């Protein structure tokens, strides 16, 4: 299992009262230090960084493609994390978003040092907004600070109303939840936006969600407005 979060790899599962817990604490402290280093660089560059998380297939890449279509004048860039391919980064590049892939192997999250290393060896130019498309996972990515201005979670209506209750840490750490694939609701017996919102209200300190659909880019304007407001706060030094 992963030596930092117990999610994959070859290390033993961390256990209470032993060296594994001490190792976990040291790793997290190292990550937090690297995240603050990233955050200082992002502030200095006037760069708004959004950590985009969610399950595999939740619609993270599609959301970024829709963002590029709706605001072609925006200077966007993206870093995409995946275990084994650069497929998402290639999709984003085709959509006009300069992108770089981080291939993690067996690690099911990105951490601050991975992001620092990726950006150190790749400059996306005069970027305004950098999206970090995290590895598809509803557990570990929420634990690791990357130096971002905000956490956004994509949640597809096909995943079920109970996902926020089953994976509360992810949604508790979210500044915004983007509910995706709303056009599929008529074909999902028992699924409802009311059920998703009720679950989110139980785990998010300040529930905030935007409902989107790939059909007609529904919800895109609200999503763009949220990013505009975040950028204004970032430039004002609030993040």
SSE layout and pairings?
Blueprint: H1 19-45, E1 48-54, H2 60-70, E2 76-82, H3 87-94, E3 99-103, H4 112-120, E4 129-133, E5 150-156, H5 163-166, H6 168-172, E6 176-180, H7 193-203, E7 209-211, H8 220-235
Parallel strand pairs: 1-4, 1-5, 2-3, 2-4, 5-6, 6-7
Helix pairs in contact: 1-4
Task: Give structural notes.
This protein has 239 residues and is an alpha/beta fold. The chain has a single domain, classed as P-loop containing nucleotide triphosphate hydrolases (Rossmann fold, 3-Layer(aba) Sandwich). It is 38% helix and 16% strand. The protein is built from 8 helices and 7 strands. It has helices at 19-45, 60-70, 87-94, 112-120, 163-166, 168-172, 193-203, 220-235; strands at 48-54, 76-82, 99-103, 129-133, 150-156, 176-180, 209-211. A 7-stranded parallel sheet has the order 3-2-4-1-5-6-7, with helices on both faces. Helix 3 links the parallel strand 2 (76-82) and strand 3. The longest helix is centred in the N-terminal third of the chain and has 27 residues, at 19-45. It starts with 18 loop residues before the first helix and ends with a helix.
């Amino acid at each position: 299992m992963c030596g930092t979060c117990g999610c994959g790899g070859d290390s033993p599962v961390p256990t209470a009262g032993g060296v594994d817990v001490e190792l976990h604490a040291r790793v997290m402290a190292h990550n937090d230090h690297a995240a603050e280093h990233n955050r200082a660089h992002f502030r200095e560059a006037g760069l708004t960084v959004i950590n985009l998380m969610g399950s595999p297939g939740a619609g993270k890449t599609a959301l970024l493609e829709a963002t590029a279509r709706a605001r072609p004048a925006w200077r966007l860039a993206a870093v995409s994390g995946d275990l084994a391919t650069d497929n998402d980064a290639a999709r984003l590049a085709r959509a006009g978003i300069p992108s770089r892939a981080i291939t993690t192997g067996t690690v099911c999250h990105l951490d601050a040092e991975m992001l620092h290393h990726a950006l150190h060896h790749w400059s996306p130019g005069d970027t305004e907004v950098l999206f970090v498309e995290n590895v598809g996972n509803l557990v570990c990515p929420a634990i690791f600070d990357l130096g971002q201005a905000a956490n956004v979670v994509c949640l597809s209506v096909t995943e079920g109303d109970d996902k926020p209750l089953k994976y509360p840490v992810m949604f508790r750490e979210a500044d915004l939840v983007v509910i995706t694939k709303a056009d599929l609701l008529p074909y999902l017996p028992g699924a409802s936006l009311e059920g998703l919102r009720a679950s989110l209200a139980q785990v998010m300190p300040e529930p905030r969600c935007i409902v989107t659909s790939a059909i007609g880019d529904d919800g895109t304007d609200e999503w763009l407005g949220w990013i505009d407001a975040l950028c204004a706060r970032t430039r004002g030094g609030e993040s």
